[in-house]
Write a structure and sequence with these properties.
single chain; 362 residues; alpha+beta; five-stranded mixed barrel; four-stranded antiparallel beta sheet; 28% helix; globular
């Protein structure tokens, strides 16, 4: 039987092969992740020992938190994408931003610090919506209009101000904050856009598999708190400038030498933990109370022998949303979808072969 060449069918078959292979690769990764979580026993934080561990507990903010681009929500990790809705994806028109900061996790026995540099993330999708047919923006979209990083907690006055301030409807020019010009995304052109944001927030339960090691053993303690790609420290030019300055002796030996009063915890909010050096004409700042000083010390200072969770050279940190059973179930579901993707790829490849050869028996 001869089969004619139909471009549309060829395109669909080719897309089936590519999509099926992508689903299979994703499914195999899910299988590996499920095996990794399932084969590692969950430990209590208070009894952690150096080596490979698995911990399941609740996220707490450390020094800083992030503000998500699409919903202005406090979080420790986000992955945001904006692309055209209802059209074939065009990488030149797609925005993707991914950031993370260090945080703590706490169970009934205690807490431990997590350094996310080099981690693999399995975060839930908290927002997924598209521009309406009439060009109206989806409900729940609240584009970030301020800084991407904030303190871990609001003081009482800031919380009251946030509750009593009428929110301003964001304009699409706010997309420039995410790293690109608004025109690049078709603002004002009537193009539909799809918004998607995956996040992990304070209070979320997570399962973490990785290496527990003393803080002093971190290979990059100055940068391990920030996920790769989050800051300019990943820029080779910036790295080279820092190395050159260090060799020339231009870098200060301590934060106090580099920043002066700004190195004192609490100085920036007018509650220093110790007396700063001020101009005689300046107004003296009230010192923080002992409990405030203890919180600042705990938040910003880590003893060298303190165990922390971080990636090892041969094992990246895995941070998955939910308790171990939920995380394993989610990854097993991806594996099953991957097997269906393999069937799709094989069927599409057979159909493509029949079309190219002209039919059966030729």
């Amino acid at each position: 039987m001869e089969i004619g060449f139909i471009p549309q069918v060829v395109f669909v078959a080719g897309a089936g092969v590519i999509g099926g292979i992508w689903l299979l690769v994703r499914g195999m990764r899910g299988y590996q992740t499920a095996t990794q979580i399932g084969d590692t026993a969950t430990a209590r934080i208070a009894t952690l020992a150096a080596g490979e561990v698995q911990v399941s507990s609740v996220i707490e903010p450390a020094e800083l938190t992030l503000v998500s681009p699409l919903q202005s929500t406090r979080c420790v990790y986000y992955r945001t994408t904006i692309d055209r809705a209802g059209e074939y994806p065009d990488l030149s028109d797609e925005l993707m931003e991914e950031r993370a900061v260090g945080f703590r996790i706490r169970d009934a026995s205690g807490d431990v610090r997590v350094f996310p540099r080099g981690a693999r993330w399995d975060a839930p999708t908290r927002y997924d919506d598209s521009t309406g047919m009439m060009g109206d923006e989806p409900p729940g979209l609240s584009l970030r209009t301020g800084p991407a990083i904030s303190g871990p907690e609001l003081d009482r006055e800031a919380a009251i101000a946030a509750l009593t301030t009428v929110p301003r409807t964001p304009e699409f020019d706010a997309l420039a904050i995410l790293g690109g010009s608004s025109n690049r995304y078709g603002v004002g052109s009537g193009r539909r856009r799809r918004y998607r944001e995956d996040r992990l927030e304070p209070g979320d339960a997570v399962t973490i598999v990785g290496r527990a090691l003393p803080f002093t053993d971190l290979a990059d303690p100055a940068e391990a708190d920030i996920a790769e790609g989050s800051l300019a420290a990943d820029d080779p030019e910036v790295t080279g400038d820092i190395a050159e300055a260090r060799e020339a002796g231009l870098l200060a030996d301590s934060p106090e030498d580099a920043w002066g009063n700004a190195a004192i915890p609490g100085f920036g909010i007018g509650r220093p933990t110790r007396a700063p050096e001020l101009d005689p004409a300046a107004s003296a700042l009230p010192l923080a109370q002992p409990d405030e000083a203890m919180r600042s010390a705990r938040r910003f200072e880590i003893a060298p022998e303190t165990l922390v969770l971080a990636s090892a050279p041969d094992q990246p940190l895995l941070i998955a949303y939910g308790v171990p059973q939920a995380a394993v179930g989610r990854q097993q579901g991806r594996f099953i979808v991957g097997l269906l993707g393999a069937v799709l790829a094989i069927g599409s490849a057979m159909a493509l072969a029949l079309i190219v050869t002209g039919g059966i028996g030729r």
